[in-house]
Structure formats: structure tokens, C-alpha cells
Amino acid sequence: MLRKIVTWALVALAVAGVAVAITNRVKAPPTDPVAAEVAVALPDDGVVVTYFTTDIRCPGCRKIETLSEESVTTRFPGEFESGRVVFRVVNTDRPENKHFLDDYKLVSKTVIVSRRQGGKEQDWINLQDVWLKLDDPAAFGSYVGDAVKRSLDAPAS
Question: What is the tens place of the pLDDT at every residue in 33-81?
Fold first, then answer.
């Protein structure tokens, strides 16, 4: 009799443990910023720096994201704070973002610097060479920063 009670108690404890684990897994917020992608307000007049990625994210992919964001926030702090320059991450594996593959003719993960005026995109630059500058953060920052500066300084269309 005691053996049956202990057996049932252990089974109940195991079932409760599995239920708690499943509940916590379902409730847990995603830890990957791409999984938790948040819409960023685009400036009517300014520059949008977008890192286009996918569900599969290698260490190099994460480094491109980090270095790109650092380039924007440290080289253009006033413009970033005011919203004139924004940084965002877009996952092209999501159905609502598939159009970017055609819009920018994307063939790999990359950074696009887009100049906006009057609420519309005027032009953009594909910074595919970010992959070649991963091991040199200073060169990476200059590469991204120079593109943002050219876009900010471009004459109105």
C-alpha cells in the first residue's frame, strides 16, 4: 500500500514538473532580438540603417548587427537620439518582410543605408562589404559611418 502511494506521488510530481516546464517555455520571452523584432519609427527626413538577417544567425551575423548598431549610435549620437538616424534589424525569413529581398535585391545578410525625404525613400546603399570588415571594428565603423554621413549630407531631391 505504501509502495503504491509513493509510486503515485512520484508520477504526480513528474507530471507537475513537465507541466511547469512546458508552461515556462511557452511564456518565456524570446531571447533573440530578431525573434522579438520591434517596429522602429522611420524618419520622414533622415537615414535608416537596416541589418537584414534571417532565422539562422552565426557569430558573424551577430557581430555585424552589433557593430552596425554601435557605428550608428556612437558616430551619430545626436541624430540617433533625435530619430533622424535609426537602426533596425529585419528578419527576411518572416513572411511580412519577404518583399525586402526583391526591393533591395538581397542575396545575403547585409546592411542597407537608406535616405528618406518627405516620408519616402529616395535612395539606398547596400553595404555588403560588412562581411569583409568583421575583423577590423574601426574599418567596419568607418564603412558604415561614411555611408550614413553621405546619406545625411546628400542634397534634397
Answer: 455 566 789 999 999 999 999 999 999 999 999 999 999 999 999 999 9
Show Cβ contacts of residue 51 under 8 Å, excluding neighbours closer than 6 positions: 64, 65, 68, 69, 87, 88, 89, 90, 109, 110, 111
Contact call for residues 91 and 32 (beta carbons, < 8 A): no
Of the candidates 150, 132, 142, which has an alpha carbon nearest to the alpha carbon of residue 63? Answer: 132
- Amino acid identity of 3? R
Tens-place pLDDT, residues 116-155: 999 999 999 999 999 999 999 999 999 999 999 999 999 8
Cell of 98: 519577404
Whether 81 contacts 14, CB under 8 Å = no
Q: Judge whether 144 and 113 are in contact, CB under 8 Å.
A: yes
Per DSSP, 54 falls in state -
